[in-house]
Amino acid sequence: MILTSSIILLISIVAGVFGALLGLGGGIIVIPMLTLFLGVNIKYAIGASIVSVIATSSGAAVTYVRDKITNLRIGMFLEIATTTGALTGAFIAGLISSKYLYIIFGLLLLYSAFTMLKKRNEELPVGVVSQPIAKKLKLESSYYDKVLKKEIKYNVTGVNKGFGMMYIAGVISGLLGIGSGIFKVMAMDLFMRLPMKVSTATSNFMIGVTAAASAGVYLVRGDIDPKIAGPVALGVLIGATLGTKIMTNMKSTTIRKIFIPVLAYISIEMLLKGLGV
Amino acid sequence: MEERKNQNEKIENMEIIISKTLRAGVLLSALIIFIGLILFFATKSSGYPANTYPTSVIAIIKGLMSLKPYAIIMTGLLVLILTPVFRVGVSIITFFQEKDYMYVYITSAVFIILILSFVLGKVE
């Protein structure tokens, strides 16, 4: 009993580190590890992964918000799109074949993996001119980069596209139950052209809010098993705290280089699911 | 210029307030979960029949009153689940104090949708 819990704790620490680093919930580590390695029923693994998302988000946000890497305004503004999207997704579930959705979004992620690959050596976005709407919404901001040892001021573009993508990300996570963190980072990086660190930290902030909206359902349904979700929460909280320390001291290009293979992996997995392999 | 500086200071304060509330929520939930797990291992009993555990807020609170290990863990998880909701709530208040009404509306909208999905989730 104690041994199993210790293993879950260790797995979760790793999930928390990566989740905090990349702006994802850690579900891509927690779910396969629990089901394949420990033989946990998928239902409880998903319940634990929802807890993992919230733990990553809250654990990482403590540092990222304090260090002003998280852009609260962008996070809140985009959260409108994600949460309404998630609600839409819950309503239209069953009306749309998820098969095509997996294929469409698998391809979209694969495309963004290639785009990211092209700019893998770009430490900070260059030549970004703020859209008028970004100024109106006061989305531009700055943060202190510990690696570059200077204050980074950044502009924001692609607000409409980013907002639209976030809505779709919400619908997808509501429909397919997959983490929307990857879509959030992608939209902020590709469309809104934010610095990589701001994208992952802001995504981190947002995924917790989105996950909290559905966590109640999972709890009432009995999918959150305390002997699994308890150690997961503790481990992820520890991991996320470590992850934030690593992230602030890491170059954006390095974070991107870790992000690209994860992106490619998820896109291929989605494509395979869509093709029914 | 002066105004801009003031605004930056305000945002900074707000970030510190949000960060502190988060830290309190996270530490509290971790502590509760930890106590629950230790109690579970020490007593070798979850306080519930095999493979069952409380799945409603009322059942969790009832179990907590009689210090059942599983109920204590679930209480910690509940606190954790509520931290993001709390975070959004605190943001509304702080945006309001800064007189940034556009973001009071935006954040309130997020809060309402969040509550709505909690309620709709229950119906389902």
In short:
The complex is a heterodimer of chains A (277) and B (124). With 277 residues, chain A is mainly alpha-helical.
Task: Tell me what the structure shows.
The complex is a heterodimer of chains A (277) and B (124). With 277 residues, chain A is mainly alpha-helical. Chain A has one domain (2-275). In chain A, 74% of the residues lie in helices and 4% in strands. Chain A is built from 11 helices and 2 strands. Chain A has helices spanning 2-22, 27-38, 42-66, 72-92, 98-118, 132-136, 159-176, 181-191, 196-220, 226-248, 252-275; strands spanning 141-145, 150-154. In chain A, strands 1-2 form a two-stranded antiparallel ribbon. In chain A, a hairpin with a 4-residue loop joins strand 1 and strand 2 (150-154). The longest helix of chain A is centred in the N-terminal third of the chain and has 25 residues, at 42-66. Chain A starts with a helix and ends with a helix. Chain B has one domain (2-123). Chain B is an all-alpha fold. Helices cover 83% and strands 0% of the residues of chain B. The chains are: A mainly alpha (277), B mainly alpha (124). Chains A and B meet through helix 3, helix 4, helix 9 and helix 10 of A and helix 1, helix 3 and helix 4 of B.
